[in-house]
Amino acid sequence: MTCNDYPWSAYRRTHVEVRFADGSTHLLEQADGEVGQWPFDSKEVWILTAFNPKSELLSPQENASRHKKLGQQLDELGFQYFAARGFDPAGQAGDQWSEDGYGVLGEVGEEVMRLAEEWGQNAVFIWRPTEWLIRGVLLEGECKSGWRFV
């Protein structure tokens, strides 16, 4: 596996829209050798979704239900989080792929990886002051890069 192989290449193309508690919205993308201005007190943010387990497309209703249940789990765990949406800006055949998720603040990796596995996710994103990391959950491997606000 290399970061240029599918599905890692698709994950690397993913842009992530984040909505902070103050209502502001920002767009993130991978950027080789770059890092933007870190907006948190926390050392890292774990970004995950419950949409489309194992990359198998579900109906909008199924995905919305899964997303809501994941949010309830994050509430039950007492995590601090914000809304996030991953999408491929290039799309495929004119159909832009998009998945709602959450950005979970703090060093909560073990629990987030458990949740991602429970929801059938191939990978999660880890956003840190100095890097953007894609870590396999059901898939093996990881890819590192910088990041920037678009």
Textual characterization of the structure:
The mean pLDDT is about 95. The chain has about 150 residues and is an alpha+beta fold. It is globular. The longest helix has 17 residues, at about 60-75. The chain has one domain (about 10-150). Helices cover about 20% and strands about 35% of the residues.
Which short descriptors sum up this protein?
150 residues, alpha+beta, 8-stranded antiparallel barrel, 3 helices, 8 strands, 22% helix, globular
Report the helical percentage: 10-25%
- Stretches where pLDDT falls below 50 for ≥5 residues? none
* Radius of gyration, CA atoms, in whole angstroms: 14 Å
Strand count, sense and barrel status of the largest sheet are:
8 strands, antiparallel, barrel
CA-CA gap between termini: 28 Å
Kindly report the average pLDDT value: 93
Number of structural domains = 1
The counted number of beta strands is: 8
What is the strand arrangement across the widest sheet? 1-2-8-7-6-3-5-4
Shape label: globular
The SSE order reads: HEEEHEEHEEE
Strand composition percent: 25-35%
Q: Structural class, judged by helices and strands?
A: alpha+beta
Tally the helices: 3
Could you write a compact summary of the structure shown?
With 150 residues, this protein is α+β, with helices and mostly antiparallel strands.
SSE topology sketch:
Blueprint lengths: L7 H6 L1 E5 L5 E7 L13 E5 L10 H17 L4 E7 L10 E8 L3 H10 L4 E6 L2 E6 L5 E8 L1
Antiparallel strand pairs: 1-2, 1-4, 2-8, 3-5, 3-6, 4-5, 6-7, 7-8
